[in-house]
Amino acid sequence: MSVYKVPQDVEAEDKLLGPFSFRQFVFLIIAVIGIAIAYGLSTILLPLAIIPVPMILFFGALALPLKKDQPMEVYLAAVISFMLKPKKASMAA
User: Fold this and answer.
1) How far is CA 9 from CA 40, 46, 66, 80, in A?
2) Domain ranges of the chain
3) Among candidate residues 57, 67, 58, the one with its CA nearest the CA of residue 13
């Protein structure tokens, strides 16, 4: 009788480079392009390098492989939604 191995994690995303999936790799490329833009702007005038920093932080955070169960963009959307909701419960009767 033959023994067959059954794949356990069939629905996992394919990894493109190290721990990064294709989507995270694209976000990482965009963050690196933002760093290059910041460097190019800093050669013109140093305070101009601040302009692409929000883009670098946003796409850099999306590229992080921190949550294995859910995509990072879903996790960040839940965190932002939690931060923006009012904290006090209304006592409507």
Assistant:
1) 43, 48, 18, 30
2) 15-81
3) 67
Would you state the structure tokens that stand for residue 63, as one six-digit string?
């590229």
- Quickly tell me which residue has 């939690």 as its tokens: 82
- Read off the tokens for 89: 């419960």
At 38-73, the pLDDT tens digits run 999 999 999 999 999 999 999 998 888 776 667 788
pLDDT at position 1 over 80: no
| Cα–Cα distance list, 35 to 23, 43, 48, 55, 87 (Å) | 19, 13, 12, 9, 36
The runs of H, that is alpha helices, within the chain are 22-44, 53-63, 72-84
Cα R_g (the chain), whole angstroms: 20
Q: pTM score, two decimals?
A: 0.69
